[in-house]
Design a protein that fits this description.
The chain has 340 residues and is mainly α. Helices cover 61% and strands 1% of the residues. It has a two-stranded antiparallel ribbon with strand order 1-2.
Length: 340
């Protein structure tokens, strides 16, 4: 059989980069180092479709530039991972508080099917929630801490302990099947000063936004295509226009989001927006923006700063983020106090 993706030696991979894509390679040893440490697919596979100047050519782009672009991508992925864990913990804390205050601390009561919708937003309580949660409570999946400690040493497993062991996806599924009273409690705790958004919109924003964070976190954690991935269920930018001033741009008549914002909200920008929406103090929002800025331009000399500016412009092209992202972020921080 003739395979369409046959094995290629490093010499052959370098030859393809030079002769098929026109990548500039002046330092052969560096090119080999880049392919050994990054891999051919990660080095060019995620970038070639967006960066190519014509049908197959990447002329004037050096192997060093592609390598730096890959490093920037990994830095941004690590940044998103960090804040996705923060948002996951925040969401689970609010969910645990809501469930405990509504149904108590006995699992037989707070997981009683009568307390939840049978089916909502593609989630079935028994099939998608109980089937995943009960084995953890019964210690059937082996060695879960701290849940198994509570099973052995206490007479109940309260919700805030259970949420330490269930996955982000399972906790989102549980949110989906909450009844309206409990959903409203979760939303009131999470959507600080976002009264301009209607309740039904908040439900949708939270569901899709948290799923988007989970998806991008998994892409980063498993080294899957991150930059060019686009979401099937994006958050609608117009819903966030008043809650996130300065981050969403509308047409002159304020009727529709700009096309660039529509495209951006199908990619990584969706995750940036939902994180900023849920970071519920000015200090946390400011730390997020500063941390993001440092991730992109960390310890740059004037020469390195210029290079990283070019890199970030290309990275925005790859991810569909607005090129004036940091201008928007700083504008948002200045306007945020006006909506408090």
């Amino acid at each position: 059989m003739k395979y369409d993706k046959p094995f290629k030696t490093y010499d052959e991979q370098i030859d393809i980069l030079q002769n098929k894509y026109g990548v500039v390679i002046d330092d052969y040893e560096f090119a080999k180092h880049a392919l050994i440490s990054v891999s051919y697919n990660d080095l060019i596979g995620s970038f070639k479709n967006t960066l190519k100047k014509d049908s197959i050519n990447l002329s004037e782009i050096t192997i060093e530039y592609l390598y730096e672009l890959h490093l920037l991508d990994k830095s941004v992925q690590a940044f998103i991972l960090k804040y996705s864990l923060f948002i996951e913990n925040l969401f689970k804390n609010v969910m645990a508080y809501t469930i405990a205050s509504s149904f108590g601390v006995d699992a037989n009561k707070y997981l009683d099917p009568n307390n939840y919708q049978v089916y909502s937003a593609g989630t079935a309580f028994k099939e998608n929630v109980l089937s995943e949660v009960l084995p953890i409570l019964m210690d059937e999946k082996g060695g879960y801490q701290p849940t198994n400690y509570y099973v052995e040493m206490h007479n109940h497993v309260p919700p805030w302990i259970l949420f330490k062991n269930i996955s982000f996806g399972d906790s989102i599924n549980l949110y989906n099947v909450l009844k309206k009273e409990q959903k409203e409690m979760v939303i009131d705790l999470l959507f600080n000063n976002a009264n301009a958004i209607k309740y039904d919109q908040k439900v949708e924003i939270l569901r899709n936004g948290l799923n988007n964070i989970r998806i991008y976190r998994n892409l980063a954690a498993h080294n899957l295509s991150f930059t060019e991935f686009r979401l099937k269920k994006s958050i609608q930018p117009k819903q966030l226009y008043q809650a996130l001033p300065g981050l969403i741009y509308l047409t002159a008549d304020l009727g529709q989001p700009l096309n660039i914002d529509k495209k951006a909200c199908k990619g990584l920008y969706s995750v940036v927006l939902i994180i900023l929406l849920l970071l519920n103090t000015k200090d946390l929002k400011s730390v997020f923006v500063t941390d993001f800025l440092n991730t992109v331009f960390q310890s740059s000399t004037s020469e390195r700063f210029l290079l990283k500016t070019y890199l970030f412009n290309d990275y925005c092209k790859l991810t569909a983020m607005p090129k004036n992202l940091f201008e928007r972020l700083h504008k948002y921080l200045k306007l945020y106090e006006d909506i408090l």
